[in-house]
Write a structure and sequence with these properties.
- The strands form 3 sheets. The chain has a 14-stranded parallel beta sheet with strand order 1-2-3-4-5-6-7-8-9-11-13-15-17-18. Strands 10-12 form a two-stranded parallel sheet.
- The chain is 33% helix and 23% strand.
- α2 links the parallel β1 and β2.
- The chain has a domain of 99 residues.
- It contains 13 helices and 18 strands.
- With 420 residues, it is α/β, with parallel strands linked by helices.
Length: 420
Amino acid sequence: MWDILRKYTSRVYSLTQRTHSRTIEALSSLMLSCPTSPASMFPHLRKLTWEGDVTQCAAEFLRMAFVPSLLSLDMYISASPSSAFLSVFSSLGSFSPHLEEMTVVTHETSDIHRVSSFVTQPILQLHRLHTLSIWDIGNQGIEHLMQQPALQSLSLDLRTSCRDRRAQSQFPGFHSLKSLRLSARPEDASEFLNSLQVVRSKRIIFHLSPVFFPTTPGARLSNLFTTLQERWDNDYLEEFILEFESARVQTRPNDFMPLQACHNLTQLHIKEGCNTSMSGEELCQLVSAWPKLEGLSIGCLAISSDTSILTFHGLISLLRTCPALTSLSLVINTLNLDGIDLKFPGGGICNKNIKTLVLGNSVLESPLDVALILSGLFPYLEQVRLWDLIPQRPWAMDQWSSVNTFLRGFNILRERYTEA
């Protein structure tokens, strides 16, 4: 019977446990009675996702799953994990030395210092780790990560930290990352960056907490970006992503001016949670520092009368300033068509690379006129996509559907004309 069982378990490459279950207790008892080595049960396991029990039974089962072939681990440690569970986890570096991808999340009410001491130990032993997502595990763990040449992608949740904020340590920094993601309040992100001598990463993602929203968010963002400019290798940075957690923040173009020092920027994505008041002239002035820009997303929602929104004239100027764009997401004022030639809207300026355009919650009055303008500016445009459309205007969805219908018709005519 054991031979038959191993015949099937040897085919298992991925295990997922997402709920608390009595099944784990039964499986643990079964596995412990195995006459051979526990690691022989899942000898080819590659990926383990664990979001369930953190009991002693779970620890016994994990001992079967932490095998040398394991390459990816996604672990959620809930509140009050057993000592047996943490003990087994601390041996991960010995059991699974070839691990390459690792995500560890802990419950916010757990004893972070106790859990971190067990989690940091295997991380210090995993020399092939290239992707890691974890909380702030303290000075020793962070400094070790900086010494790992294989590490390419790092995500740190600074909202959960076992570091003594009063201890101002200066670290050498990161020198070969492809991606760094920081989840934090702006001031905590600034403090973390200030503790580093230099950061070299092709991508930076800020996932900002809503705690600071009621008090001058623009000033705090500007301070964060200034710190970024001082600590980052600006010639190395290629992609900047700004995310907000569940709320909207009103910002101005000047808040982002420190980013102009990053001359090799190819991607700038300010997500929908940020309401950026920006005219066409202000946007072109901002992006003029990035001649290689390929992807641009600007979150905007007109929530007050002083919010500036891009017009078609501004869009034309943007295409002139950034000819290398391959993706574009923003909100435009389609109601102002003054001075726009529907037959030749760009005056010779167009973008042939963009096939899908995201126009946020833009509203319109004339679907045909808007489709003519968009088709002239983007000859190969296939569709317009929306996000966060105002629920009070359900008719707007029908109008934008008409725009996409016209665009499909224009494309059919263009293809037939090209064939002819």
